[in-house]
Amino acid sequence: MKGRSVMIAAPKSGSGKTVITCALLQALKNRGEKVVSFKCGPDYIDPMFHETAMGIPSGNLDTFFTDEEQTRRLFTDGAGEDQIAVLEGVMGVYDGLGGVRKEGSSYHLAQVTGTPIVLVVDAKGMGRSVIPLLSGFLAYDRDRLIGGVILNRMSEGYYNIIKPLIERELKLTVLGYVPEQKELGFESRHLGLVMPDELEDIKGKLEKASGQLEKTVSVDGIVKLAGEGRRPDGGGSERRGRGREMYPALKKRPVIGVARDEAFCFYYRENLRMLEEYGAEILYFSPLHDKKVPDKCHGLLIGGGYPELYAGALSENERMRESVRQAVNRGMPAAAECGGFMYLHTELIDREGVPFAMAGVLPASCFYTGRLVRFGYIELQENKSIFLPEGERIKGHEFHYYDSTDNGDGAEAIKPGTGKNYSCIVENEHCWMGFPHLYYPSNDGFVKAFVEKMNKMS
Q: Which ranges in the chain are annotated with CATH 3.40.50.880?
């Protein structure tokens, strides 16, 4: 069976594409379809929500992070021939890096992956004006990727009036409408932090949203459109699953302990897969609930998340804090990003000014600033080659309201587009710590170096 894919995109943020994407995913799953999802851009939240609340494999694709060939490889590796891949766009469909470049935009990703686009338009308060709006987006669609539109927050009565006008004047398929349903919105924290007592309510909302979609939107039409895409060949996917064969020097597969619980939950699926491709075995553990780093670990990865929401519990788990500190201090290779970086500090000071003892690997404090400290794409280049080949960069993203008394000077962060730079990353021969979230496929040299350091411990 030929692979199928469709992108849910919009003219701007806040148009309702996230709720409609979730409703579509649930509807397809209820129909018995094999579904996989991808988020355009660096956001962890939606993919994590898809996996946690719906059990649907989900990842990230970003044409700033990776070039076109690598993006296609990641796409074909993550989407099987018998699956429908649903891609959720970011911002406005043509909005890329800096709001003006094509790299990082939903449209560029659709071009690279040969994916048809369903445009979600927030039509509340609009009449016939929706037609010139759509006409402009179609005029800019040079590859003719926009294959349908869903009118969000529109009444049934007006939909029956405007649908034939749109289809007659624009020759664009109107796939349906979604009435305004404030009760089906998802709180932003829910998307990022699904607690056990919240999950039942969220699953109920998903079923209601998918039921509404089935009533007023042609899911069959979306499936048909998905089959009209031009999914690229899986060239380059021969790397997948080779493990030890890629690096026969590995004596055995080193084990990397990956912190994963309510406090540490931000991981790109592509990063974890790449660690496995390069020979590492992943073993999850919980800094919240476990008492120590697993004995068989040869390395540690502590990702981002919400340590500030669990500062008290993390602090009370003294045995785990001591175990992490001892492991890193004795030379165990470790990488920590954002929330994980905060956990390795001596203390975390929350937004009320209350200090909590953390792992104490880094003799510094992190604290709430009340403002967004760093935001957006970056490229990182080390001042001394330890984790990256000399002179090479790895791409990443920052988004944090906390800051540190020691952000490090192991690397320079360069803002694409402006060229502005600043120092960051605390590192030594075995440890990389900092606020930036890295996207490993943008430079596999980082993964190779990390795994080789772990191999020396095995």
A: 241-457
Burial of 439 from C-beta contacts in 10 A (0-12 / 13-18 / 19+): buried
- Specify the residue for token string 């009449």: 127
Q: How many whole angstroms separate alpha carbon 334 and alpha carbon 457?
A: 12
- Reading the block at residue 398, the tokens are 């920052």
Q: Which fold has domain 4-226?
A: Rossmann fold (3.40.50)
Cβ pair 132, 101 in contact under 8 A: no
Which regions of the chain carry the CATH code 3.40.50.300? 4-226
pLDDT tens sequence for the chain (458 residues): 468 999 999 999 989 998 899 999 999 999 999 999 999 999 988 888 888 888 999 999 999 999 999 999 999 999 988 899 999 999 999 999 888 889 999 999 999 999 999 999 999 999 899 999 999 999 999 999 999 999 999 999 999 999 999 999 999 999 999 998 876 665 554 444 454 446 667 888 889 999 999 999 999 999 999 999 887 765 444 444 444 445 555 567 999 999 999 999 999 999 999 999 999 999 999 999 999 999 999 999 999 999 999 999 999 999 999 999 999 999 999 999 999 999 999 999 999 999 999 999 999 999 999 999 999 999 999 999 999 999 999 999 999 999 999 999 999 999 998 999 999 999 999 999 999 999 999 999 999 999 999 999 87
The catalytic residue among 22, 338, 424, 431 is 338
- Return the CATH number of 241-457, one of 3.40.50.2300, 3.40.980.10, 3.40.50.880, 1.10.10.10: 3.40.50.880
What amino acid occupies position 231? R
Q: Is 338 a residue of the active site?
A: yes
User: Which CA distances in Å does 286 have to 11, 79, 290?
Assistant: 40, 29, 5
Task: Please give the model's pTM, rounded to 2 decimal places.
Answer: 0.91
